[in-house]
Amino acid sequence: DAVAKTFDESTRRVDACTYDEYAKELRLVIAKFAIVKGAKGSRKLVPWWDDEIRRSIQLRQAANRQHRHALKTLGKVPVTLALWEEYRKLKAQTQDIVETKIQAHDCKVMKNIRDGGKNAGEKFWRYIGSLDGKDRAPELLEHDTGYPVQNIEKLLEKQLYSMFGTAHVEVPAEDDVDPSRPMEDVPLSTCIDGNITRVGRVHLDRALARLNGNTAQGLDGIAAKVLKNLRPDSRDQLAYLFSRIACGDEQIPSDWRRGRVTFIPKKGGNKQHLRDYRPLTVTAVAYRLFATILNWRISCWAESNGALTELQNGFRKDRRLDDNLFTLTQCIEVARKEKRNLICCFLDIAKAYDSVPHSSLLRRFRQLNMPDDWVRLIQRLYDGNSVMSTFNDATSADVPVRRGLRQGCPLSPVLYMLYTSGMERTLEQTGVGFTLQHKQHGDVIVRRLPGLAFADDIVLMADSVQDIRLLLLACETAADRLQLQFNASKSAVVQFSGQCEGLGSLTIQSNVLPVDTKYKYLGVTLTSSEDYLAEQYTNLKASALRKRNVLRRRSLWSSDRYAITRELWKAVAVPGLTFANAVTCVPSEIREYLERRQREIGRQALGCHGRVANELIQGDLGWSTFEAREASSKMEYYARLRHMDGDCWARRVFVYIHLQNVQTRWRRRVIRLGTKYGAFAMVAEPTSKKEWVTQVRSQIKTIEAQRWREEMQRHTSMHLYASFKNKIAPITFCGNTLGSRLLIEARGGALRTRLYRRKYDANVTDTRCSACADAEETVSHLLLECPALVPAPRVGTSIDQALGFTEGQNCNITCSKQRLEAWWSIHV
């Protein structure tokens, strides 16, 4: 905020006429507020440390020195004892301050993770890694000899040059303008049709709102948080400068032309070989904002002009990864139900984004009749770029970029999909694929699905070996034209239904494709076994166990076990365990396994023992069951299919299984969940998808709460809880103290009193209160009546107030915790 305010008031910022001048002034302001790091080797401060803690510790240390001096010189006299009490007081104050700071920091971390949305898991694992410090990258080895690399800088430069520095030699077609020609000096603003290059303030605000404040900054040194905090005048000026860059009145900023390549190890690869790393280009944050806005414009144009095919569902508006998974899994079940063949060929394009030639990319855009000012702008964005990299403190020289799309750039996915859209059209033109034939309104409709694409993930589908071979030939021809190479070793042919001969003879670009029984497609492992999701279930159980073990790590919930555990499970674990929940079905035993793991985490968050009823765990944490989550996601996707465009393949498959009455797992599960939760019994039929989903979600919550209350009535020990807890909602008074844990057990009728233990232990015969021995040891007696426990409850306090069922009763809750702690010390 301070940087943004100072920058907004800067006269040099107001006078800036170009983006370079604007960015230069912003860097100068940032430098004024930069925190100077300590000397090399100094210990890194914990994130919650500040001056208040430092001053408190200094006061405590001074009091400790005074006490020791008095003890040494005066002995144990009243003055020494007073100094001792002063030291203890300051020590307790310091501890309270530190705990408050840690709790505030943990809440900030949790909010950052929770606000991450789809990136919450990535943020969480990054936080986990930060707890143990950053590991140094392993020593690199020569690929040929296996000896340690002596000159890492040269190796990095060589690797960068092999990826980006070589360009394909091409002869442009006669009717095409050479896209590699130098840009003319004529401003593009003189030949713009409309305002398609104008960047408005609304577009910039929207892009800034979507920008992750913690994203890595580029080589220009301008952090995302600074841009997100820009004031209105600064934003208006930045939008104006973006417009000048877009229309060509201003050159592409030099900061945007340099990128830093970060090498990320591939899963399952050798971390000592640089070839087993995936390159990610980190560009200037301002460039990413500009590219985001341009991406929206080009994507809108591509959709309205039909530049992309129905086979492609990646990174498109109103398209989802679930669409591909739904289409593929339903086709597998259709083929098996109808006893037909289904052969799938999963293709992997080697270094897909890195292999795109710039000249061919621009030529393809002109073939698609993309507005010429956009083609020129893209050419300017990719002309004259360079990259560098660092690895283990070694820094490479700058390497010019002559091919490839930037990994991590918001614009790259749509550019790649437009570039390869011709491959999908070629597949459609073959006229072969998995056949879906049915009658509709008396007409016979025959559709053939040749495959699906999600950005660079391709799967071909056919009824016979001959047809799959024809589709492979079409892909090979298109890939050769696009100068892309398929990686046969990472591709696979899987027959999900039927028996066909000759699968081992299938090739792509002269390489034999391996025949396998399973393949992980878009995060879901599909197999050719009787249950094609069997391995996915195994992975799901392992993932639930791993997430549970991670959340048991004490360093995660040092300040507030309840809040941290609850939020992390909901924001990080649940999205992973419910991945593709809308289109895949898990058996009841797997769902119950997930429920047990969730209840274990819930008991850890509350700090209660295993005999506390499951309904209390759900009610006091505010978590839904996995079945309710499944019902919500499946009903929402069902509504999506009902309102989906008829040309989408997911909609076509949906219509087919209903008209042909194919009882797939998904269809049966949707009918069962819809019936159970009343989704198909609404009085008034909603008119829109949004209205239908809203009503269904509300109905699911109502039915879930009703079942939760019915289950509570079956537990005799839960009569108090059932009487006062009327909704599934998290509590606000649970902490890390013993009193909190005992209060939770008391709420659920599971406090380990003598009366309670007699139900399970025949050796317990005396049920009188451990503290006063005057009455039976019940929860009501301990909280409201026992005279031996302090502090005494407030006059007029009821049992529901003492147990925390009534809001705004913090004083009563604190009293209850203290009385239970006092009882426990006597009881134990």
UniProtKB/TrEMBL annotation:
Q: Which residues form the Reverse transcriptase domain?
A: 245-526
Q: Which SUPFAM superfamilies match?
A: DNA/RNA polymerases
Q: Name one Pfam family in it.
A: RVT_1
GO BP annotations, alphabetical order: DNA biosynthetic process
Query: What PANTHER family does this protein map onto?
Result: REVERSE TRANSCRIPTASES
Protein's name according to its UniProt entry:
Putative tick transposon
What is the organism lineage in this UniProt record? Eukaryota, Metazoa, Ecdysozoa, Arthropoda, Chelicerata
